[in-house]
TrEMBL record:
Coiled coil: none annotated. This is Glutamine--fructose-6-phosphate aminotransferase [isomerizing]. The chain holds residues 244 to 612 of 612 of the full protein. The gene is glmS. Its EC number is 2.6.1.16. GO terms for molecular function: carbohydrate derivative binding; glutamine-fructose-6-phosphate transaminase (isomerizing) activity.
Length: 369
């Protein structure tokens, strides 16, 4: 009913707008006055065990996998430890080297996804400690895992995950900061700087959800496309993957998320004046690189839409349309940059009268293999 949707047309839009509060919930009580992330009391895994780990292995499906990839980039950067990432459906049949010094991190909103559960069973059989990042207390996954970091997103009704993606990315960020501190792998000042930066996220995300009407105008330009390419690099490669997944799920428009540097190795052949390219070019170490990847796409006449920081004249000059977002620490930028892409997918599906909350062929939770 519309009462349950609090006046929003769809649960998906309501859940997109809940994100500033969800981020506050995910952060609550987990960062102390010194800006140190404190997860010890929740995880109850001895810090000696965490210090002895030689590898991190992250798994999940769909949107949960994409959120795990945000964690992967942060852990690689901050924790000085090899980090592997694999889809749970591949993990369960792959031949993987893992032992008691491998830390498995399983991402699942529901905690009931069959492939993720099976992957975790295999990891446990190999003796790895398992930390779940999950939204549902008492789920199958939570019972299997040695520890759970709850995302506290509240119930998500829309089949297309939005607030649970963002809360998983925030939780994975907290876990990266915690592991880095425990392992003394990064300068404490840098970890504290990122942790302090998380406090700006609810307001930054609030600014972006309130650009919904502007994003809707861009949606009108993109909705006739047969195919859309989403480009990101480094910490925003998962943002591109998630933007593409959202669009596919609810609008049924073909989309691909690509690491922008890979364009010239094949996908650039797809481009023409009818194939929009959506690039994430917010500030950070790969900004100049991705701007030049976008310029190459523009040279093939692709319509260009960029997710860029307020005041970015270079992006404005390059793009046909800009989806503006506030500046935050680069390592936190995936949490903000995905929001306009959620809104874009939403508006395209809504304008075209699609069943936004219950897209065809999809189940909220995939409990079969
Ligand atoms: C997200 O929009 C999808 N509906 C889907 O990819 C989902 O994220 C995936 O099935 C994993 O679900 P889980 O987080 O409950 O394990």
């Amino acid at each position: 009913t519309s009462a349950e949707k609090s006046g929003f047309k769809h649960f998906m839009l309501k859940e997109i707008f809940e994100q500033p509060n969800v981020i506050k919930e995910t952060l609550a009580g987990r960062i102390d006055e010194d800006h140190d992330v404190q997860l010890g009391p929740e995880l109850k895994i001895d810090e000696i065990v965490l210090r002895a780990m030689t590898k991190i292995s992250i798994t999940g499906c769909g949107t949960a996998y994409n959120a795990g990839m945000v964690g992967m980039y942060l852990m690689r950067s901050l924790c000085k430890i090899p980090v592997e990432m694999e889809l749970a459906s591949e993990f369960r049949y792959g031949d993987r080297a893992m032992d008691a010094r491998t830390l498995t991190i399983a991402m699942s909103q529901s905690g009931e996804t069959a492939d993720t559960i099976e992957a975790v069973k295999i990891a446990k059989d190999a003796g790895t400690p398992v930390i779940a990042i999950s939204n549902v207390v008492g789920s199958h996954l939570m019972r299997l895992a040695d520890a759970t970091l709850l995302t506290r997103g509240g119930p998500e009704i829309s089949v297309a995950a939005t607030k649970t993606y963002v809360s998983q990315a925030v939780a994975a960020t907290l876990l990266a900061l915690y592991l880095a501190r425990v392992r003394k792998a990064a300068p404490l000042e840098r970890l504290r700087e990122i942790a302090e930066g998380t406090k700006l996220l609810p307001a930054a995300v609030d600014v972006v959800v309130n650009t919904s009407d502007q994003v809707k105008k861009v949606a009108r330009k993109v909705r006739k496309a047969r195919s859309v390419l989403f480009l990101g690099r480094y910490v925003n490669f998962p943002t591109a993957l998630e933007g593409a997944l959202k669009l596919k799920e609810i609008s049924y428009i073909h989309a691909e998320g690509y690491a922008a540097g890979e364009m010239k190795h094949g996908p650039i052949a797809l481009l023409d004046a009818k194939t929009p390219v959506i690039g994430v070019v917010t500030e950070g170490r790969v900004r100049e690189k991705i701007l030049s990847n976008i310029a190459e796409s523009k040279a093939r006449e692709a319509p260009i839409i960029l997710v860029a920081n307020h005041g970015d004249d270079e992006a404005a000059a390059l793009a046909d349309h800009v989806l503006w977002v506030p500046r935050v620490d680069e390592m936190l930028s995936p949490i903000v940059n995905v929001i306009p892409l959620q809104l874009l997918a939403y508006h395209i599906a809504d304008i075209d009268g699609k069943d936004v909350d219950q897209p065809r062929n999809l189940a909220k939770t995939v409990t079969v293999e």
